[in-house]
Write a structure and sequence with these properties.
Largest sheet: none
Number of strands: 0
Helix content: 55-70%
Radius of gyration: 18 Å
Distance between the termini: 65 Å
């Protein structure tokens, strides 16, 4: 029986999002395969995490493309981006906490491309006057990543409704936490 590598990765991502310390045995069980089969595809946890990283990068790049970040108002593009990335948010939350992905001198070029695209979106919003200029585009990018991870964890634990994910992230990021005076 052929093993669907993508299905194994998605099963691993779902499990590791809920329990980042899961063993390879637990990952194999979640994917419905034996540990030996899992090991044939991924020599160990590091190889599995690197494969999950590649999947995460591909999904982020697809979301960035789907968001059409260079079209229309930047705030609308941010909304489209968060909406497009929502299905992958759990995987990204797991990857966000994987220190091994950020060790060493060289960041994966895929993350660098994503960072550049998102940062450019915030820069465009600042240049058009939509976004405040006292926060750097790099900081806004990092804040978005943190909110995406936090939102994914809150949804996974049932503290936030899945349907509220995009709204809550976008409104906090773009509107801030300060209460606005009623007109």
């Amino acid at each position: 029986m052929a093993v669907d590598r993508d299905q194994v990765l998605r099963s691993a991502a779902a499990l590791l999002t809920r329990k980042a310390t899961s063993t390879m045995d637990e990952v194999a069980r979640a994917a419905g395969i034996s540990r030996a089969t899992l090991h044939r595809h991924f020599a160990g946890r590091d190889a599995l995490v690197r494969a999950l990283e590649a999947l995460g990068i591909a999904e982020c790049e697809a979301a960035l493309e789907a968001a059409r970040a260079d079209e229309g108002p930047a705030a609308d593009a941010v909304r489209r981006l968060v909406r497009a990335i929502e299905p992958s948010a759990g995987l990204l939350a797991f990857l966000y906490t994987e220190n091994q992905l950020f060790e060493g001198e060289e960041q994966n070029r895929g993350w660098a491309r994503i960072d550049a695209g998102v940062t450019e979106l915030f820069r465009r919003g600042q240049e058009s006057g939509e976004f405040r200029i006292d926060l750097t585009p790099v900081w806004l990018t990092e804040a978005l990543y943190g909110l995406l991870a936090s939102g994914a964890w809150a949804v996974a634990e049932g503290r936030v409704a899945r349907n509220d994910f995009t709204h809550m992230i976008v409104e906090l990021l773009l509107g801030g936490a300060l209460r606005r005076e009623e007109p």
